[in-house]
Amino acid sequence: MAPDPTNGGPRAEVAVIGGSGFYELFDDPESVEVDTPFGPPSAPITIGSVGGRPVAFLPRHGVDHQYPPHKVPYRANAWALRSLGVHHVFAPCASGALTLDLEPGDFVVPDQIIDRTFGRPSTFYDGPTTHHLGFADPYCPELRRLALDGCRAEGVVVHDGGTVVVVPGPRFSTRAESKWFAAMGATVINMTQMPEASLAAEAGMGYGAIALITDRDVGIAEGEEPVTEEEVFARMAADVEKVRRVLFRAITSDLPECVHEGGPPLDV
């Protein structure tokens, strides 16, 4: 076990990875710089109190949204959170709908992933230690339950289960790609769930996502207009208060034991 990166400073059992609008969740926030073998995380990690529970927050794309999806330092992010004591991660993420029953403003709590990314460093085990992660069920069922309960308690339209197809980004899909992803059985499309989810599992952290539907992907409905970056950001801004309320309920619930087994012990 490596030395405490905070030198006796704040630690947290639960974390949120998301957009910068979630800073407002916290009472008495404190910024923590964490160094990792993979460089710095996307931003200094903020640790504060949410309903009396210490919580770590990390803006996935950086404080100024400077990291596009393919440049997010996923390994550094997961390593930094685990080194601060985190065992449970809630990960809200902007997503497009690939089925007609989903509307912008709906939430989906997914249970499966199809990874279509490439070129992203996606494991801590580059050798000489090798580990093949069991990843049949990528999302912690107990964190999924807490997210669903939080959505329902807040009156949010939420869909239980679904498959996220993760694309490289930063561009959006062609119409043909969108139709193909839907034909593959994907429910929503996103750019950041992988390797974030699998790295969390390798690090021994339970991981639960909340997909925030910002748009319907372009090839799903006849005559659908292509989404723009401005529309996605506007939808996210409109939903951020709902997400904060849902996360507050989930975080302040009794946290389950849902930690992935991970692999050989990481030196964190």
Could you describe the 3D structure shown?
The model has no long low-confidence stretch (mean pLDDT 90). The longest helix is centred in the C-terminal third of the chain and has 23 residues, at 229-251. The chain has helices at 74-83, 141-153, 175-183, 193-202, 229-251, and strands at 14-18, 27-32, 45-50, 53-59, 88-97, 107-109, 112-115, 158-160, 163-166, 188-190, 206-216. It is 24% helix and 23% strand. With 268 residues, the protein is an alpha/beta fold. Strand 9 (163-166), helix 3 and strand 10 (188-190) form a beta-alpha-beta unit. Strands 1, 2, 3, 4, 5, 6, 7, 8, 9, 10 and 11 form an eleven-stranded mixed beta sheet that branches. It has one domain (14-120, 133-251): Nucleoside phosphorylase domain (Rossmann fold), CATH 3.40.50.1580.
Q: Helix proportion of residues, in percent?
A: 10-25%
Q: What about the largest sheet?
A: 11 strands, mixed
Number of strands: 11
CATH topology name: Rossmann fold
Q: At CATH's second level, what is the architecture?
A: 3-Layer(aba) Sandwich
Overall form = globular
Number of helical runs? 5
